[in-house]
Design goal:
The protein is an alpha+beta fold and 430 residues long. The protein is built from four helices and 16 strands. Strands 1, 2, 8, 9, 10, 11, 12, 13 and 16 form a nine-stranded antiparallel β-sheet that branches. Strands 3, 4, 5, 6 and 7 form a five-stranded antiparallel β-sheet that branches. The longest helix is centred in the N-terminal third of the chain and has 55 residues, at 17-71.
Length: 430
């Protein structure tokens, strides 16, 4: 006899409220953990992205700085005919303080390959509608050479030999891109390169002595035509070298027989020109500014954002014995020139050397530039607790201890020191 099995009874019973609460709590915990991890990843990604952006800016901008330092003195006149020509550099403050054509006592007003100022400050409000305020306490550096401009003409040169009848055209390179152009007309200076019995080289600026403001020639429409007689070698021992300075369609002449690039840290009054992520008030932008031949004003080119300081150190072989003395940037107050002396140098003779074009050519061995720049954004979870030295030797440059960083509001920022060391290629000392 079989026993009948009753089917299981269906029930409408679901999850209890307690089970739902526990499940929801577990889901919320998982979401919170995931969100926290994502936020941490996002924060670190932003920091790394900002840091890499800063590094890329530094590499690109500072390579241009390095190039200009190496070119210091290229195509630069070392002597003038009598009467000496009149030329003008910067027409606006504070750049005009580093002019050689006016405003400083140097023999014959010969241009210096390098000019600097220690702890410079000032404002330029004449070049653009924006005022640029030089960051107080940073150094200022002016580099003079024909090749420190952005025009194609400034990257070219050629030579002209004596012909006996004043009718020879300058050398033409096989690559037409290396030759001067007539449309728009290239502006070219001419140097007479002479050698003394001891092997000393002197580059004398050639110009029309009846017009001491005519420092250049316009490249002729036909590059094979005879050069203007005033710019031709006068004897077989002479070779004239032609250096391009500028090219444009404007009728003005060159205001100076070279180009000039100034490097400094400034803060523009137009806040839209500086990133909002930069430490406020006490940081600026590293600029490269070319002096315009037309009016002596500056054309600004930003190279690196969020810069706190720039310090410059010069290495001098004072006695020609290979022993190097290092100094800080120039200061009109002798007592304030930082100096690390190993061979009897004094602040006075360093000052004299930095005012002399010939001494700079013969004794400057290298230039060091240190730039203190912000790396990434402000990080409230990070506090800097170490001293930052903008250079190798603090006595020559500058240092910021924790107290100074706190005063400037820099404790929650990471700082990087960019370091450039260059031996200028166009100075006699190298």
């Amino acid at each position: 006899m079989f026993r009948q099995v009753q089917p299981a009874m269906k029930t409408n019973k679901g999850f209890t409220l307690l089970e739902l609460i526990i499940t929801m709590a577990l889901v919320i915990v998982v979401i919170m953990i995931t969100g926290s991890a994502f936020n941490s990843i996002l924060t670190n990604t932003n920091k790394l992205t900002s840091s890499e952006e800063s590094n890329i800016e530094g590499v690109v901008g500072l390579e241009m700085f390095r190039h200009d330092l190496q070119q210091a003195g290229f195509g630069l006149p070392q002597a003038f005919l009598d009467p000496a020509p009149q030329y003008a550099e910067a027409s606006v403050a504070p750049a005009n303080i580093l002019n050689d054509g006016q405003g400083i006592t140097v023999a014959g007003k010969i241009p210096r390959a390098i000019a600097s100022r220690e702890g410079f400050s000032g404002s330029d409000s004449a070049s653009e509608t924006t005022t640029y305020n030089i960051l107080g306490g940073t150094d200022y550096l002016a580099i003079k050479a024909t090749s420190v401009a952005t025009s194609q003409a400034s990257q070219k040169w050629t030579y002209l030999n004596y012909s006996g009848n004043g009718g020879k055209a300058p050398n033409r390179w096989s690559n037409s891109a290396d030759n001067f152009k007539s449309n728009p007309p290239d502006k070219v200076i001419v140097l007479n390169r002479a050698y003394s019995p001891t092997g000393k080289v002197t580059n004398t600026l050639v110009y029309d002595s009846t017009d001491t403001t005519h420092l250049d020639i316009f490249w002729p429409n036909n590059p094979t035509v005879i050069m203007v007689n005033a710019f031709n070698p006068t004897n077989p021992n002479q070779t004239y070298y032609l250096y391009g300075v500028a090219n444009d369609n404007t009728p003005h002449k060159l205001s100076m027989p070279f180009n000039r690039a100034d490097y400094f840290v400034a803060r523009p009054s137009n806040t839209a020109k500086i990133p909002s992520t930069c430490a406020p008030n006490n940081t600026g932008i590293l600029y490269r500014a070319n002096i315009n031949h037309a009016d002596g004003k500056l054309t600004y080119m930003p190279l690196l954002d969020c810069v706190a300081d720039m310090q410059v150190v010069f290495g001098w072989d004072i006695n020609g014995n290979g022993v190097i003395d290092e100094s800080g940037a120039y200061d009109s107050t002798v007592a304030n020139i930082p100096l690390s002396s190993s061979s009897g140098s004094t602040q006075q003779n360093i000052k004299d050397i930095m005012e002399s074009p010939e001494e700079i050519r013969n004794k400057l061995k290298y230039i060091k530039v240190y730039i203190m720049a912000q790396e990434g954004r402000k990080d409230t979870s990070y506090t800097n607790n170490a001293k930052i030295v903008v250079g190798d030797i603090e006595s020559l440059t500058k240092g910021y201890d924790v107290s100074a960083l706190s005063t400037k509001g820099w404790l929650n920022y990471r700082w990087k020191i960019y370091r450039i060391i260059v031996r200028p290629k166009n100075l006699a000392s190298n």
